[in-house]
Design a protein that fits this description.
Elements (H helix, E strand, L loop, with lengths): L2 E6 L2 E5 L4 H13 L3 E7 L5 E7 L5 E6 L20
Antiparallel strand pairs: 1-2, 1-5, 2-3, 3-4
């Protein structure tokens, strides 16, 4: 499973228990309701749950962390190589 780093209000969080699509859907749902909470991990090492309040205007960035290329050198399917096309 891939990790997703989250930048929220100048702080860094992460999650590894859902996909980018699932997490972004949770955020869209919270915003469609005007406000909502999203649970993620705080810090590194021992797991601590952080609850982020999602509201319009709060700076929030999702940064998918690729697992890296496969042993045969092919790119991770979730993150296709960028091309100039």
């Amino acid at each position: 499973m891939q990790r997703i780093d989250i930048s929220y209000g100048g702080e860094h969080y992460s999650t590894g228990d859902r996909t980018f699509e699932q997490l972004s859907a949770e955020i869209r749902e919270a915003l469609s309701e005007g406000v909502g909470w999203v649970s993620v991990n705080d810090g590194e090492g021992a797991r601590r749950v952080a609850h982020l309040l999602v509201t319009p205007g709060v700076p929030l960035a999702l940064i998918p962390v690729p697992e890296g290329p496969a042993p045969d050198g092919t790119p991770d399917e979730d993150f296709p190589a960028l091309t100039d096309e």
